[in-house]
Please model this.
Amino acid sequence: MDIFDILSLFGGLALFLYGMRIMGDGLKTGTGGTLKNILEKMTNNLLKAFLLGVLVTALIQSSTATIVITSGLVAAGLITLRQSLGIIIGANVGTTVTGQIIRLLDLDNSSVQWLQIFKPSTLAPVALIIGVIFVLFIGSEKTKTAGTIALGFGILFTGLLNMTASVSSLTDAGVFDGIFAGLDHSPVLGYLSGAGVAFLLQSSSATIGILQAFSMSGALTFRGIYAVIMGVYLGDCVTTAIVCSIGARPEARRVGLVNILYNLCKTLLVLIAVTVVHRLGLLDAIWAAPINSGGIANANTVFNLGCALLLFPVATLFEKLSRIIIREKPAPANRYEDKLEALDPNFYNTPVLAFRSAYNALSTMLKAARSNITKAFDLLFDYDAGVMKEVNEEEDNIDLFADRVTNYLVEFSPKISLEEHVQIQNQYYKNISEFERLGDHAQNIAEYAQQLNESGNSFSADAKREILLLEDLIDKILDHAELAFMNRDVLAAKKIEPMEEVVDDMINALRDNHLARLRSGLCNMVVDNIFLNLLSDIERISDTCSNVGISIIARVQPQLAAQAHEYSSRLHQGSDMDFNEEYEKVHAHYFRLLESYQDESGENVLLTPAMAVQEAGTPAGQARPDVSEALEKEGPEAEGPKAE
Model:
């Protein structure tokens, strides 16, 4: 034995851990969205959830990853804590698959010839060759992911082979005799060792794999390793619970706690079962005999599967205990606290969950901004100090969302590698600023209403009708923008641009009408300034919605991402027939309403059919006139889609 044997041992360990990490990362990257969808849809009963937990963990080779994904789904409200119980138990069973793969170390040259292909010394170079070909020579997104998985698999087994070779050299020198003799006579030491190593490595699969590699020394016995395996269960689930708890809501933290409670019960059951069976003499044949890699894998599988079968019927008790230990927080001061807390850094390693949290926050931000726009328009006709306060408070929430989501995406950036994820992030960055601008314009409109109220002025009856018609068009544009963002609806997104052009035309017409009223003395200078500023903010709302629509189209058609301005210019130049048709239809509809009445002075002002029989105008402070009936009578073709 010399220093080079020890270096070789730790070098093999480093390769083993690194290979397991990149293989797991590749599997999660390639299947993250699919796994999330499956986990959401197949947890309607405990048995299906259990089988799903086994399958997913066997696939991605990490019970920690499975349980963290589950915690994210619980935090997002996509599944309940009770639905997660089966997944947690299944994840603990699924992690034993890694050990069963590593037991291939036991294959020797005397085995059946065709089995030689499954020896690590064969699998490792084959996997590495496939991985290099996929990553370096083919290079597509899908093959890169498959190549990464293959490279991780090959590196994992290369490290394992390196460890076993070093263990053989160190065994010949008698290095392990004293160490493993201590495990034989001190189950407590074995338990603490297993827990400590699993906690440090953050992986039960890796810890069991290392134990299997050391079994090549021939110095390990069942008496020495069963306590180590039990310790591994505790160390791994504590790590998982910590990951699930960082910045998480109570329901998500309970997922980690349920895993700890389950593993404590599992440890107790294994201890009782091994003690009883040993006292009955049923373990005498293997108790002090050397145990190989396959024996360790089988012991781990039997422990996990047996405990799952025994504890499965009482799984709901773990849920009840977790609720007793982790109680609900008092109601948050901010009603959006749950959405903000869902921006959880623990999701960075599972991009689909991180993006889902950002999407939920942005959806809430858009709806809040839109609600503020509606309230702000209402204030123009019926000022209420309480509503004004609500608008200001909601604007603060919109700004808070903008800051939190921006920081979340910035911190998440280093974890993004797939081009598809880059496109999502680019869209979300743009949407953050656009949704924040919508909130700003809503606040501006509310402040114009406040200025009118404080100065004792009001818009003329004709101006009010023009604002109402313009608001209806803006509302339809917002319908399309919301539907486009929520459902990634390109058809809805494409309807925004022609309607935005109609808004520009109407703004120009309303400015002309306003100047005519100003010349005739129907409007004073205070109201003049407010009305023109109001038109500017309304125009910017439509421009902002246009930007949102283009960001959605660019997400679906990435080639437009760098040509957004040129794309918009081509549309407005009349080169797109669909744009032209939609523009002409919407323009005709709204300008027919705008020109439906001509006052005595000969100036064109708005009077909808529904208001033709009403008094001209509504005094300031009273409810505004309802134009919805008139708009409906003009035909359903002008109705915008209603976002869910």
